[in-house]
């Protein structure tokens, strides 16, 4: 092919290429424009959707808050309703109690009326009895002066008789103690103090023992013989008794047989009583008592005081 022809062919192609490129560029620009517009509209649509979503979320939050408030109000209403129901139940129970009390009061009122009627009847009967008693009192007052004089006279005679019995008993006591002193002799540890004949415990018993020794039993039998002889002279109407009192010192007992001085003093008095009974003294004329360490003759702590407090007292007394 000749060179000039090839050149003409190249020149003819370029404008078409340019047109094609221009067309392609325009298409690209159009596509870009469409894309930009689509992006713009989509952005606006998304923005509107976000705003709507935000509004919806705000509305939902408000609704949730209102729902919470409604629920709280509902709980308060339920609590108020529960309290009202409780008050209603309490009121009903109080009403029932009042009705029951009212029924009881009605019943009590009827009972009270019945009791009042009964009391009126009893008071009427009591008035009748009082009238009868007043009449009887009027009748007896006439005799009271004479009876008072008789009672006063009887009292005087009784006092005279008692004084005579006491004097008579005192005479026999003095005689008994006098004979007993003669029989037992003037011995240390035996003495008369007022209306009592006193033996020191050492004359009758060993230490912490309630068993009479040989010498002690002999002295108690002499006492029994003297008492039997004297009792033959005492009139039967003189109701005499011989009382034997046991006493200890204040030192605690160390014997396993006697838990305390009470038991020791009582056992010693009973031991003397048994010996008197064995010697012939009637048991109904004898009495025994134990006083422990609680009636001392001497409150000091000396050996002499302790020995003085350990004693057996014989009382000739009226029963």
Automatic annotation (TrEMBL):
InterPro entries: Bact_OuterMem_StrucFunc, OmpA-like, OmpA-like_sf. Keywords: Coiled coil, Membrane, Transmembrane, Transmembrane helix. Gene3D superfamilies: OmpA-like domain (3.30.1330.60). The chain crosses the membrane at residues 21-42. GO terms for cellular component: membrane. Residues 53-143 form a coiled coil. Pfam families: OmpA. This is Outer membrane protein, OmpA/MotB, C-terminal. It comes from Magnetospirillum gryphiswaldense (strain DSM 6361 / JCM 21280 / NBRC 15271 / MSR-1).
């Amino acid at each position: 092919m000749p060179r000039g022809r090839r050149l003409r062919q190249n020149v003819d192609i370029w404008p078409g290429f340019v047109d094609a490129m221009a067309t392609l560029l325009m298409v690209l620009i159009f596509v870009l424009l469409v894309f930009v517009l689509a992006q713009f509209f989509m952005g606006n649509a998304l923005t509107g959707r976000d705003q709507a979503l935000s509004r919806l979320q705000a509305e939902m939050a408000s609704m949730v808050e209102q729902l919470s408030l409604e629920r709280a109000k509902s709980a308060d209403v339920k609590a108020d309703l529960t309290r009202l129901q409780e008050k209603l139940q309490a009121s009903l129970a109080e009403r029932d109690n009042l009705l029951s009390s009212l029924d009881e009061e009605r019943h009590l009122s009827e009972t009270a009326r019945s009791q009042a009627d009964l009391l009126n009847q009893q008071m009427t009967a009591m008035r009748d009895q009082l009238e009868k008693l007043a009449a009887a009192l009027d009748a007896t007052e006439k005799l009271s002066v004479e009876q008072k004089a008789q009672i006063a006279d009887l009292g005087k005679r009784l006092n005279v008789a008692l004084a005579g019995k006491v004097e008579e008993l005192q005479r026999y006591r003095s005689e008994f103690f006098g004979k007993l002193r003669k029989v037992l002799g003037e011995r240390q540890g035996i003495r008369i103090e007022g209306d009592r004949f006193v033996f020191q415990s050492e004359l009758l018993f060993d230490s912490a023992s309630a068993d009479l020794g040989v010498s002690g039993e002999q002295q108690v039998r002499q006492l029994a013989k003297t008492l039997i002889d004297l009792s033959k002279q005492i009139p039967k109407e003189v109701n005499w008794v011989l009382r034997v009192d046991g006493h200890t010192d204040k030192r605690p007992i160390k014997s396993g047989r006697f838990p305390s001085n009470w038991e020791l003093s009582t056992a010693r008095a009973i031991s003397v009583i048994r010996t008197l009974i064995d010697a012939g003294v009637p048991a109904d004329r004898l009495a025994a008592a134990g006083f422990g360490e609680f009636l001392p003759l001497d409150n000091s702590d000396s050996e002499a005081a302790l020995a003085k407090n350990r004693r057996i007292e014989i009382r000739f007394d009226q029963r």
